[in-house]
């Protein structure tokens, strides 16, 4: 099976998520990273590319899109791993060049940027994948299959949370580079709701298969001088009558990366937490709780399809991320339908989520319809 | 040390919480149950008393209050373990007779009943204890002490939840006696918010030491034909700027008695769950999480004071309940100040909570001030 | 239902296990503690009895046995809660007086004492109960029922452990009274193997229903100057070909009271730990693991019979202990057959266990047959 | 940084561990797989190589060693991922050709094969790495550092276990390929003790820094007709007086890949389990237990060095395996001293372990000295 030729925008020295994308693309050996505009600083881009052994380095993503589209052996897909406000321009440039785009989330820093991406996706024959990587966890896909199969009956409650503590103090003022851009309204567009809330929201929709009808939100900025939300309490109303809550926090001391999903229906309930993602519980009403393990016994299809090693050999965040990349490779090579891949619609849902949270919070928690 | 002479109203054959109160009163051998009006049905009252070996049986609580007050060896305290709508009348009768009252929660089924109790408490020299029994767990008292001591810094978030699943189906229509009265608006006054929400709310206030300033709520009735709420999503605003959420549910499949409290401040966070109550985690910001155990190492006072057996020998629900009874015995005998005992004010807070939830939910989740 | 009249030998001021027995006897209100020889020191015995409100105080257990046997309202049972070397004499005195005996474990400090008790039990019409209290945990009884029912198939492995850390340092030399007698060969007869190893051994036999055929052991004394074993590694051979291991330790830093049992057969496996005793896992081979909870869903008889409160309301060590007392009350009153009650045979098994461990260890771990 | 040119022997279509090695070598992008003798069947070797995009395919490892050694761009290292009895011949061939060897464990199927490898390693200037991959887990390395630092004081106990259930039934007779060779004495050399026991033994030595002085073992073969051990109970004596136990099982129903290590010293204890490898507990004696997380707060050096993503983003088995590969790349490129890399000595320890277990078990559990 041949490897997909991949490029990257962003992800130069000192970046975080770019390295994650590169590992994810390598794990199943489905991509070959051959070109990059790793930094807008030409020297840094060049040094980064050299360090990573990337053949072709560009300092400008527009030039890269144009040059790569013109090559016979040009890239077939590009990963965009820049801060949020820098997603739209490169995404549009590559889409216009007919090159498939794998873009980090959230979709953009503003609704305008998001709309521009949407327009470009619609106008292009290239594919657009948004790396809501948590959808790649095998047990999340298992949960989705179980819900779809009716194992939980009619859904009533979707409880999502994503709690961290790394912004407990105002580290954006004391030299933490990640904190700097992620708490800057101009570059991030939002705080916790964008950075992690969109993940939780996406996961809730992905697994439940429900659509949001309205939300209410109260956003907080606890750390002194913080310019974006660092905590959010959100209520959700779904189609069909299900209800939910979502809590996103970056000031919950003791929480590292506590993304957690609990869904309850008339017939059963499931609970899953990202920090030990190889385990999920499922309770059929009136029966003992079962511990479902990745690749373990009794899975009726589902998790077994997206795992590399036997049960009890834990897979983690990078393997879940890799599942999204591998599905993207299949999609790009015409070998899969990409049913499970997050894309533009998920991105637009996330942008609505951010906007609705901000509007609701500004209106004392009033409901905002989808 | 002599035993307090105790009476009981309610708790006859077939009842649930009465038996719990009796065990709780016995564990530390501080009470002697000598009189009861265990049922309003005279024959059932008599039979129940005989079965339990209670010396003096009454079929009418008013008669009991009068007779016991007149005896030299009459009861010094009475436990009221009737359904919610039957708290006020006996409570008032015993308070008026100068007999101390230990009353099950919530305070009453209506605000009017609650006010009448409040008036009677103020007019009486007798004490009034409300069995918010979860305050008796040693680690809950430890947590309260740690918050008061500043171990968590300035509080930011109080996340409480109480999830059960026993009302997933409409068992009130199929012969479940507990379900019948607990889902009857006339007898219970409210559903999940009264039965379990008040516990979670009380615990949040007890541990945090905060006062509520406002709440917003959305109540749901998922089971077909249910006349009260069986699920509630609540937001809380506390004095000093702390915020919180509270989720109460009786339809969360797979949850048995999931009362859980998480509190986060500027310096630390704690997490505790009732189902394994001998363990709590405490994370000082920037340090590894610690597992604090009941009676275990490193408690700077606190939990060690309310436990009977060494760490690793689990105490449970009944011992926590017993701590409330034992504190009540101390209070009645003039041996303690009852600082940790829940009482009238807690009951009124709970009644406000129920009322505010209902008003907010009826107003589409608008904030209701305390 | 009338209460059994109970006496107590030992358990005066400063003792530990006596207070546990008293609470256990009270929880279900099946006993009335009316007489005691709480200490061999007359003044201390008197003061202790007065503090506890015990009507009749004796300073000599022989006198007590005689006097109580002569009274019409004399005690029907006596709890013996003295150190191990002081079990035999009072047990024999009361058995000879025809009074039922509830004795703490292990049976005795020496084989000779144990044999003397055995002779007395056989010669007496009174009952003899040994408080291997962990057999009273509902889920332990559930596990026993599941094994007996064949849910695990043919048993292969029984892995038991009991790890503590309270004797990590030589606290017997620095004033810890419990440590003093429990590490004194004369008073305790053995160290970890007697104090906790016998519990684990008893539990393994109780749940598995197997009989030991041989054991091999290596005993260690890690703390400086310790005169008894504080750690033991043991192998077990059972009838029918099952094999097992047992680890008992009082120097495993971080372990509070880690009694744990794991049993595996051809068809299933179960795992239970005492520190969170309301939960057990059961895995039918080739299916997902189930979490069995005390009183919870899907128990086919078993745990539901020995519990007072609904699932999710944790019961603990004291309630498990109380189940043994309550069964003893039934036995004494002729209302039950005592099938689940540990007694003389369990005590003799434990004494064989202690002796065999010591002999095997002295012989470099050679196998010792039952 | 340039990639190390890697070859592979074994790991063709249908194999398991070969794919794991390939992923592990890719994760950090330190290797380039350019040659292989993936199967002794020429057509299968060719097809496998093609499928994997490996440039140079050989059907004979001797030919491969010779040809690659002769090329300027020949491989610098070879991964040997054949069944145990096929480790020695290719390892020796490549060592003799001066090519570094990365060999799967255990070292060999027989002591003779092991000795031959040892001789070849000593005679060669090439490096030899044995993939005891569990040593690559960040928290295992953290634990090793903590022990070395004296955080646990003087070690007393090392309790290791490795429990699985996949050989509960005799699946080697019903078409399970992995079961076939792993339970074949000729190809595997031993059963559970070789396949998983050596891992647990290696980990115990790696973390504790202790040397074994003697062991005693009882091996069992529970499944009908099984020709090797599927369960083993082992005692260990270490230098300096520490003692330990090791339990390896492939018939413990409900255990997936339960490798677990617990170490206790005079000052502290640690506990770690492979199935959730991002978490370890550490208890300083007399203080609350701490939860140490991979990359989390309060690590004084250690785990932070071998991790790619922030705490709370779980890494798993493949990342641990990748750490061994990455260290091997450093070693091969002369960029590291390989201090943490398992090699020949670890392999010989493992072979002694297997042999000693078999001899002890044949002698009714007698001690066998190192």
Automatic annotation (TrEMBL), chains A, B, C, D:
GO terms for molecular function: nucleotide binding. Residues 140-271 form the GFO/IDH/MocA-like oxidoreductase domain. InterPro entries: Gfo/Idh/MocA-like_OxRdtase_N, Gfo/Idh/MocA_oxidoreduct, GFO_IDH_MocA-like_dom, NAD(P)-bd_dom_sf. Pfam families: GFO_IDH_MocA, GFO_IDH_MocA_C3. This is Putative dehydrogenase. Residues 5-129 form the Gfo/Idh/MocA-like oxidoreductase N-terminal domain.
């Amino acid at each position: 099976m041949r490897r997909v030729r991949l490029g990257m925008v962003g992800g130069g020295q000192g970046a975080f998520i770019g390295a994650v994308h590169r590992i994810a693309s390598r794990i199943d050996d489905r991509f070959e990273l051959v070109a990059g505009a790793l930094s807008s600083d030409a020297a840094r881009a060049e040094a980064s590319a050299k360090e990573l052994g990337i053949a072709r380095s560009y300092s400008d993503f527009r030039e890269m899109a144009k040059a790569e589209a013109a090559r016979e052996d040009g890239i077939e897909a590009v990963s965009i791993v820049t801060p949020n406000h820098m997603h739209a321009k490169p995404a549009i440039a590559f889409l216009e060049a007919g090159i498939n785009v794998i873009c980090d989330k959230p979709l953009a820093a503003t609704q305008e940027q998001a709309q521009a991406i949407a327009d470009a996706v619609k106008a292009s024959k290239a594919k657009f994948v948004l790396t809501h990587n948590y959808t790649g966890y095998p047990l999340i896909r298992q949960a989705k299959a179980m819900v779809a199969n009716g194992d939980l009956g009619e859904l009533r409650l979707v409880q999502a949370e994503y709690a961290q503590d790394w912004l407990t103090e105002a580290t954006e003022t004391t030299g933490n580079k990640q904190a700097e851009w992620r708490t800057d309204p101009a570059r991030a567009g939002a705080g916790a709701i964008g950075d992690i809330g969109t993940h939780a929201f996406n996961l809730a929709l992905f697994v439940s298969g429900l659509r949001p009808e309205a939300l209410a939100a109260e956003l907080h900025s606890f750390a002194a001088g913080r310019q974006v939300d660092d905590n959010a309490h959100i209520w959700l109303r779904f189609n069909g009558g299900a209800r939910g809550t979502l809590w996103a926090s970056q000031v919950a001391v003791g929480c590292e990366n506590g993304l957690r999903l609990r869904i309850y229906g008339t017939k059963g309930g499931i609970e899953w937490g990202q920090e030990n993602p190889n385990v999920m519980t499922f309770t059929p009403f009136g029966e003992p709780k079962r511990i479902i393990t990745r690749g373990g016994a009794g899975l009726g299809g589902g998790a077994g399809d997206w795992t590399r090693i036997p049960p009890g050999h834990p897979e983690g965040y990078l393997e879940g991320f890799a599942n999204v990349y591998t599905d993207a490779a299949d999609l790009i090579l015409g070998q899969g339908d990409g049913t499970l891949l997050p894309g533009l619609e998920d991105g637009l849902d996330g942008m609505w989520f951010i906007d609705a949270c901000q509007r609701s919070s500004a209106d004392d928690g009033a409901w905002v319809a989808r």
